Amino acid sequence: MNRIKNYTKMPRNSEGANETNMHADACRLIANTNNPPDNRNGRENSWNAGVQMFVSFLLAGYGMVAASLLLDRVQHWNVFETVPEVYILVPALLGLKGNLEMTLASRLSTHAHLGHIDNNLSILVIGNLCLIQCQAVLVGFLAAMAAVAMGWIPDGQFDIHHAMLLCASSVLTASFASLVLGLIMIGVIVLSKHMDINPDNVATPIAASLGDLTTLALLSWIASLLHTSIGTSIILPTLIIIGGLILVPVCGYIAYENKFTRQALDEGWVPVVSAMVISSAGGLILDYTVSNYKGIAVFQLVINGIGGNMVAVHASRLSTSLHTGQKADNVFSSTTKLLLVMVIPSQLIFIHTIEYLKAGHTSLTPIFILIYMSAALLQVFLLLTISHYMVVAMWKLGMDPDNSAIPYLTALGDLLGTALLGIAFHILFAIGDKDSDLGD
């Protein structure tokens, strides 16, 4: 009952109907304690859950591959060659936007299990679209400022036209991507519910896969259009930036007044910014390892992407269990074991895809596969263990894990994956697997 009481402490407005809705939610949660909403006839079938998660991981992985191929193509566009700071903007914007979309997917999955989508779909849609619009535009400003600073510090030269181009491109990309991806995620979760698919198993990986590809495509297109029209004038980017500054408080106010998104608006900022700091530490490790082992870069995308998707699914499922009044699974739950089993086939598929596309610089020898798989398994095992304790701790502290856990966990996934991959390459080099690809 304490969990139910804590969950129903939502922001109240002056309308009496709000208390009635909260009472109905509490009654629904009591009923769901012994009858989980995602499987009313008992425990979720492990085979069905495994198939749903594996298919979503494949989609996410190939979305990541598609984004990599897209980046390989657009890097030759004039805007990337003339304004190299756009390269700095890419990982920052993709990482921050990915966290926003995955937390949105986790929140909406929980609402689907609680029955809120059946009765309050329009309120949920408006509140969450405004919430991620507010967050995304501010994230866009933050990512642009970071890119401008990193481009200015090395040589001490500041170009106002480049700075305005980066800021306007980032804000406009974040705004459009949030609108498109938000609508897609709502559609995915509603469709999953109607098809009797657990949205916790599919929503966050789909958000990750579509987020990278959509955001990169929009950024490249918008930056290119602005670059061709900007010339010596900063009027157009200035208007875009002013529009973003107006949009933030308007959308923030609407999200604050919405009972389903007020808590997320309060809690969502610190995890996203903290995740950026943690990911930056992973970037420093990557910079060191890439300088020594050129073959590491392409595998870093795979190990971090798969690890991040798996821990996001785990956190989303665990958060839903807590919200629906169920006891948290133990660390070595059936979900944990299932996700660990999926690491090997998922990684094998994508590293062989890399080899087939000739995108890597390392031969897939048996010893390489063994050590690489060991690093991937250890990364996912550590992430799932941390996920369990983090989500439960947040819940006990009165925080909603749907709003806070995933950014920390995906950032830790980047840090752990990069570090373990660097150790794996170092071990390979030390034991004599020194083919020309590995160290060159």
Automatic annotation (TrEMBL):
SUPFAM superfamilies the record matches: MgtE membrane domain-like
Location of this chain's protein in the cell: Membrane
GO cellular component: plasma membrane
InterPro entries: SLC41_membr_dom (IPR006667), SLC41_membr_dom_sf (IPR036739), SLC41A1-3 (IPR045349)
Protein name: SLC41A/MgtE integral membrane domain-containing protein
Species for this entry: Parnassius mnemosyne
Main location group: membrane
Keyword Membrane found: yes
Top-level lineage group: Eukaryota
Record keyword Glycoprotein present: no
GO MF entries: monoatomic cation transmembrane transporter activity
Topology versus the membrane: Multi-pass membrane protein
